[in-house]
Design goal:
The protein contains 13 helices and 10 strands. About 50% of the residues lie in helices and about 20% in strands. The strands form 2 sheets. It has a 5-stranded parallel beta sheet, with helices on both faces. Strands 3, 4, 8, 9 and 10 form a 5-stranded mixed beta sheet that branches. Helix 4 links the parallel strand 6 and strand 7.
Length: about 300
């Protein structure tokens, strides 16, 4: 299977690097500056699960991809706000039999990908991992969790999922074929929206919020997110909710959403894709989510302030 990984940051670089390490036919689609760096120094992963240096790393830019033929699988790992440009970049790699596996958060990206490439070509997917792309280009894997969950969004995609599973088998991460990948994506969305919403609203970690007496606010925000998912026929399981409540109320936790780091450094965030889209889906079925809405207002207000300061 010929695999194109869109992006070589913390997510794409890690999973693509693990597939390359396992001998798979992997090429990275990256921007010109990143391509020059990778062509000179390759790809490095530092991980408790096994570090690896990959000096010969196949890379391609968008301009070069236009004459490179199509791929069997395109793994999209960009941020949601970069997806429109990324689709333009990797479109030449998608042929009649190609599959697209997005690892973005939320659900709205599926609509854009379906419209561009056809729903039959687009699988469902998500990942559970903590990584950091360091200044020198090395990818630091920050925990022992590196799960990549994927699956069919329709029965017609069953054979395609089995082909992807075979390609992932033996690579040094945890591939999981979900029997209901759409539910798995909704569950992650619920957790992530609650985490991002509360840590960005409070500008603090989960532990700091819990120790300040904010546990009730955290659980209320989680329940707002759960109610929206349930109203759309994707009720999170009780075991998932129990896990989420435990992680989101742990007074010893240093957990924060990456969205908070994006916000604090004045960069773009996925707030509209993660929080805004969930709010819109709630309103569409008559549900209000005041804490989630307050979090989105706080994020947008801070972004407006940063934009004025930059001017």
């Amino acid at each position: 299977m010929r695999i194109l990984v869109v992006g070589a940051g913390g997510i794409g670089g890690y999973y693509g690097g693990r597939l390359l390490e396992a001998g798979r036919d992997v090429t990275f689609l990256v921007r010109p500056a990143r391509a020059r760096k990778m062509r000179s120094s390759g790809l490095m992963i530092a991980s408790a699960s096994g570090s690896v240096e990959l000096p010969s790393t196949p890379v391609v830019t968008a301009a070069e991809l236009k004459s490179g033929g199509t791929f069997d699988l395109v793994v999209a790992t960009c941020k949601a706000y970069d997806l429109p440009g990324a689709m333009d970049d990797f479109a030449p790699a998608v042929g009649p039999g190609s599959l697209v596996l997005p690892l973005l958060n939320g659900m709205r990206h599926l609509e854009a990908l379906d419209a561009r490439f056809g729903a039959n070509a687009v699988l469902g997917g998500l990942c559970l991992i903590s990584t950091r792309l360091e200044d020198g280009g090395r990818i630091a894997h920050l925990s022992d969790v590196h799960r990549l969950t994927f699956g069919a969004r329709s029965p017609a995609q069953g054979d395609a999922v089995r082909r992807v599973a075979a390609a992932f088998e033996g690579a040094r991460f945890e591939p999981v074929v979900a029997p209901d990948v759409t539910l798995a994506m909704w569950e992650k969305w619920v957790f992530l929206a609650a985490l991002a919403g509360i840590t960005c609203l409070m500008r603090a970690s989960i532990g700091d919020i819990a120790r300040a007496g904010g546990t009730g606010h955290v659980l209320a925000m989680l329940d707002e997110c759960r109610a929206i998912a349930e109203a759309h026929g994707r009720a999170p399981s009780e075991s998932f909710l129990a896990m989420s409540r435990g992680r989101l109320t742990d007074p010893d936790s240093a957990l924060v959403a990456s969205m908070l780091a994006d916000l604090e450094r004045g960069g773009p965030t996925e707030a509209d894709h993660i929080l805004g889209d969930l709010l819109l889906r709630g309103r569409a079925v008559g549900l209000s989510a005041p804490l989630l809405e307050a979090a989105l207002v706080a994020i947008n207000a801070q972004a407006n302030r940063a934009a004025r300061a930059a001017d």
